[in-house]
TrEMBL record:
Keyword vocabulary terms for this entry: Membrane, Transmembrane, Transmembrane helix
Protein name from the UniProt record: Integral membrane protein
Transmembrane stretches, start-end: 6-26, 38-58, 64-83, 90-107
Lineage, broadest ranks: Bacteria, Pseudomonadati, Bacteroidota, Cytophagia, Cytophagales
Length: 109
């Protein structure tokens, strides 16, 4: 259980750093992701997979699969636009996908 909690904290902190980076970019005219942003996306994906592996028989697949797909899309955008200016549509897409993924994780059905 301790390992699960540590991985969950790392997952949550990486997610907060990513969301914080998007929030810091909000007032800027020229929005540009840091080159290390891809590592946050990969960290979120890997820790998410580890969390699923640690809870395997009791996994809510209806939450895990859409959330993983959203993080994969977010990581792809981060990889493509790493170190490059973000178009407004991509920036708002990243924010929307991040918020949707967090809502999937938080709400119980």
């Amino acid at each position: 259980m301790t390992l699960f909690n540590i991985v969950l904290i790392v997952h949550f902190v990486a997610f907060l750093f990513f969301l914080g980076q998007l929030a810091v970019l909000f007032p800027l005219q020229d929005k540009q992701l840091h080159k290390q942003t891809i590592f946050l996306g990969v960290t979120i994906l890997i820790t998410g997979l580890i969390l699923v592996a640690l809870k395997y028989p009791h996994v809510n697949l209806y939450k895990v699969i859409p959330k993983s797909v959203l993080f994969l899309i977010i990581s792809t955008f981060c990889g493509v636009y790493s170190g490059k200016p973000l178009p407004k549509k991509i920036y708002w897409t990243l924010i929307t996908l991040t918020v949707v993924a967090s809502l999937i994780a938080v709400f119980r059905v």
